[in-house]
Amino acid sequence: MFYGILKIITDISLKVFFRKIEVQGEKLIPEGAPLIIAANHPSTMMDAIVIGSAIKKRLHYIARGNLFTTTFRRWLFKNLFVIPIYRKSESSEARERNKEVFRKCFDVLAGKGSILIFPEGVSQVERRIQKIKTGTARIALGAEEANNFKLGVVVVPVGLNYSDPEEFRSDLFISFAKSIDVSEFLEMYMDSEEAAVKALTDRIKESLEQHTIDIENEALDKLVSDIETIYKDRLTVEVDLSPEQEGKDFRLTKAITDSVHYFNHKEPERVEALRQKMEDYMQLLLSLNLKDDLFKKGSFEKIVSLRSLLTVVYSLLGMPIHIYGLINNYLPYKLPGFIARRVTNRIEYRASIKLLMGIVTFSTFYSAQIWAVATISNVEWVIAYGLMLPASGFFVLYYWNRLKRLRGNLLFISLFYRRRVLISRLLRQRSDIVGILEVATEDYLRQQQVSK
């Protein structure tokens, strides 16, 4: 019951926290089979929460044993069906204690239950698959051996792709891969346990790489991000993706990543030249406090159009509602981020802390505010006030983003008329980069056709 109630709360909270959640491939999960979900791990507790929300089945979670340090935590994690696993650095008895952990996992799978494991073993915010540990494969194959190879265990790799692992109202794309039937490795397991474990681990890694953005190093990650900023919209046409297609952003980033890796291996000097041009352009934008969106085709016409004038009028008319929403939502909105920054400097922890603290702060503040209004007003006004609280909060976010865009537009107009030479330089730099990317896209697509 506790698990079910908490799941309802987190499901609602996720819809508020993320601007958009796309889930692909959930229908590939086999019905009725013992299941191991193997996911990448960019955002600590948030990863477990979003997968638990996306999957209808009740999950058992594998987590580090050092989380179970207090009586309350042990009670909490037990009721959330969390199974501890221990590292050698955390416990001198790790090997013996993990034997019991494996037996618990075998029992769950024998009862056709489902287990969530993060086979990387660590949480890193980088867009890169870390080294995959062998524990997932050992549990899957060990469960089959303990049950005379009759369970039918399947492993479902899951790719978690956050547009920004820390930011509120960001996007999330969850991609379920085709399930891996563990029985494929049983014959190999009979001959060599280690060979079967390695083969299954490699298969899990390959599948995760296909369903995540896996970039070789930090320098290439920065280049991919810059290309996304400048070229992602134009690339939609090149790779024949409709704007409404499921996982569009993920597919575009995957296409950019694949092409950057290709050229980095074949023509590294070409990649380095592009990287330098990108860096110069981005540094100049940053020094002027401008965004690349202002230089996209048709942007200037929009800035000086009637639409921009309407934005000014909207900003003036919306100010009173903005102030009302800010007064009612500022503290519960700001506190989770403040607490997250004070608790940790690791980005991969912040989103889950923000989510959990947001549930607490908004519940507490909204309850107190509604109670205060109820003491001085009638039922109708209390209901209206209660409904206006979240509505005014979302209006503040929307209004503030519009205000920032208006400020950017006005800054751009000011610079355009005061420093035309500099703006012209930016436009030439951008045009040069887009030209290079278009040629590279044609070369890469031509190579892909030849390789087919």
Overview of the molecule:
The protein is of the alpha/beta class. The chain has 15 helices and 8 strands. It is 65% helix and 9% strand. Strands 1, 2, 3, 4, 5, 6, 7 and 8 form an 8-stranded mixed sheet that branches. Helix 1 crosses helix 2, helix 10 runs antiparallel to helix 15 and helix 12 packs across helix 14. The protein is flat. It starts with a helix and ends with a helix. 29% of the residues are buried. The mean pLDDT is 90.
Write the layout of secondary structure elements.
Elements: H1 2-17, E1 20-24, E2 35-39, H2 44-54, E3 59-64, H3 71-79, E4 82-85, H4 94-110, E5 114-117, H5 135-146, E6 154-162, E7 171-176, E8 180-181, H6 186-191, H7 193-210, H8 218-238, H9 248-266, H10 268-287, H11 299-303, H12 306-343, H13 347-374, H14 379-418, H15 420-451
Parallel strand pairs: 1-7, 2-5, 2-6, 3-4, 3-5
Antiparallel strand pairs: 6-7, 6-8
Helix pairs in contact: 1-2, 2-13, 4-5, 5-7, 8-9, 8-15, 9-10, 10-15, 12-13, 12-14, 13-14
**What structural category arises from helix and sheet content?**
alpha/beta
Major β-sheet profile? 8 strands, mixed
Silhouette: flat
Q: What value does the Rg take, in angstroms?
A: 26 Å
Instruction: Please give the alpha-carbon distance between the first and last residues.
Output: 53 Å
Estimate percent helicity: 55-70%
List the helices and strands in order: HEEHEHEHEHEEEHHHHHHHHHH
How much strand content do the residues show? 5-15%
User: What assembly state would you assign to the polypeptide chains in this entry?
Assistant: single chain
How many helices?
15
Total strands? 8
Arithmetic mean pLDDT: 90
Low-confidence stretches: none
